[in-house]
Amino acid sequence: MSPTAVDPSVVGRVLPEREVEVERGRLRSFALAIGETDPVYTDVDAARAAGHPDLPVPPTFLFGVGLGRGAEQDFGWIAELGIDIRAVLHGDQAFTYHALAHAGDVLTLAPRIVDVYSRKGGALQFVVRETAVRRADGTPVADLRETLVVREITA
């Protein structure tokens, strides 16, 4: 096994859940960063006029909602799998939405490893992680799926 090889026995591993509060300021910053021009995403009055209780979560925001607490918390699961972070590339991400989330919501993120496979004779390995996102009452908000590409590091 190369130093970046991922043990396929990690498939099925449940990773620690994280609880996050959706912060209004972070939503505004994200909306501005992605070039969102609809005031529903940045102005509470516009959001309420559109029927929302507060600022709604823009579609791709949930991918990063668990990030921002430091490298150990954000990427510790990768190190726990024995993967050298220098070998990791973003492969893919997908979202299945069940309900809108809004500023002030407390969300639970429940990730698990669902697949590990390789290509190019093992030079590229793929780790697929799915994360169920739900409200504190258990209501499903979204299912996230991300694929990391782990490239072989040679010297």
What descriptors fit this protein?
155 residues; alpha+beta; Thiol Ester Dehydrase, Chain A; 5-stranded antiparallel beta sheet; 4 helices; 5 strands; 19% helix
Summarize the structure.
This protein has 155 residues and is α+β, with helices and mostly antiparallel strands. Helix content is 19%, strand content 34%. A hairpin with a 4-residue loop joins β3 (106-119) and β4.
Describe the structure.
There is one protein chain. The chain is an alpha+beta fold. It has a single domain (8-151), classed as Hotdog Thioesterase (Thiol Ester Dehydrase, Chain A, Roll). It is built from 4 helices and 5 strands; from the N terminus they run βααααββββ. A 5-stranded antiparallel sheet has the order 1-3-4-5-2, with no helix packed on it. The two termini are 14 Å apart. The mean pLDDT is 88.
